[in-house]
Amino acid sequence: MGKVGSTSVWNVLNDLGIRPIQLHVLDPDRIDLVTREHELRGFGIPDHICDAARVRSLISNPDEKFRIISLVRDPVARNLSALFETWDVYPPSYDEAGGPAKLAEWFVMNFDYSVLNWFDQEIKAWTGIDVFGYPFDHDKQRLLIETDRAKVLILRTEDDLRDKERNIAQFLDVPKVTLGYSNVSDDKPAADLWKVMRRGAKVSSILADIVYDSRMVRHFYPPEQVAAFRRNWMPSYDGLYYEPDEEHAH
Question: What average pLDDT is seen over the chain?
Answer without folding.
Answer: 90
